[in-house]
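User: Fold this; tokens only.

Assistant: Input:
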Amino acid sequence: MNISSPDTPNPDTSGEGRLHDYPAWIYLLKEFYDVYSRGSAGGSKTVRAHRKRVRDTISSVLNASPAVVPRAPAQLPVTAHLPRAFDLAARGIMTGMSRALERAAHDLTWEYGYQRVPPHLRKTYGYCEILGPRGPVLCEKLTLGFVLFAPRTTYPQHSHPDIEESYISVAGDWSENETVVLAPGSLILNTPGHEHRITTGNQDPCLLAYAWLGPSDRLSDPAMKFSKPRKQG
């Protein structure tokens, strides 16, 4: 993910205020806090610790009411699938987060994050940030956002150096590294540098919430890139 990409809008500081001036962002952050509170760690101490770090940081943000730097709203071809994702989420356990995101939808900045986007992803992938070093809600230690995939999408193998990443399914089914199928409400944790590949189902889009924990300089410029295919022996 390269923040110098021409697909990445620049922050618009003309409407800057504090978090308490933006109820939609507050309620969305509260949904993140709730999701990272109520879910099971499945007996994993690593997952439990990750959940706690995310919750503690969100709590600090809500208490501090940091600056909000509105970014120019932007759509991508994949956002044509967003209403269907909201419909799917309304039927399941992630309806609270889905509704909070839907109410903020007109302020979302959807982007690719890569200088060179593979042709097959131009209409099938996009992400938006809610909180992080680039805003709109400013935070140096944590990035929160959403990723949207169209049906029948393969997101190539990649990794995040120095970044601890978790995904929570909001709508649609998907798999990571073709070894596990994740349904709404499920969480998967990728440790720093762990390579992973995402595939989505044939019928419906997939909406994922994500959290990144790491050094502020890495969160600002995560240097994410697709891995080179391994040569077959």
